[in-house]
Amino acid sequence: VQLVQSGAELRNPGASVKVSCKASGYTFSTYYIDWVRQTPGQGLEWMGRIDPDDVATKPARKFQDRLTFTVEIATSTVYVELSSLTSEDTGVYYCARSRSGDYDYWGQGTQVTVSS
């Protein structure tokens, strides 16, 4: 099983960023993909979840106004897009495979830096 994320991103305040997570080595539709980030100010935060089986999404309330999840079934890839970025969004973003609330595989992390 592997979750491979896209590379580091640098954005200006107010911009958007889109991070990908490509899954392999298992049946893509049978596990959720969660997104978690680690920032200097807030520590580890759960951002939300997507179910590749029915493309149902569950964003955390804190992010629901500026967070979008998409899935590309043909390539087993999940995307998360965060808009209206501020410096407080600077951090490392992770995808993780989950089922029944447990995470068993993680992506390598994507550094997102918001700076003018």
Strand content: over 45%
In percent, how helical is the residue content? under 10%
Distance between the termini: 37 Å
The SSE string, one letter per element, is EEEEEEEEEEE
Q: Segments where pLDDT lies below 50 for 5+ residues?
A: none
Largest sheet: 7 strands, mixed
Radius of gyration: 13 Å
Shape: globular
Average pLDDT figure: 96
Class per helix and strand makeup: mainly beta
- Could you give the count of β-strands? 11
- Number of H- or I-type helical stretches: 0
Descriptors:
single chain; 116 residues; mainly beta; 4-stranded antiparallel β-sheet; globular
Briefly summarize what is shown.
The protein is 0% helix and 58% strand. β5 and β6 (56-59) form a beta hairpin.
Written overview of the protein:
- Helices cover 0% and strands 58% of the residues.
- By secondary structure, it is mainly beta.
- The strands form two sheets. Strands 2, 4, 5, 6, 9, 10 and 11 form a seven-stranded mixed β-sheet that branches. Strands 1-3-8-7 form a four-stranded antiparallel β-sheet, with no helix packed on it.
- A hairpin with a 2-residue loop joins strand 9 and strand 10.
- The N and C termini lie far apart (37 Å).
- The relative contact order is 0.32.
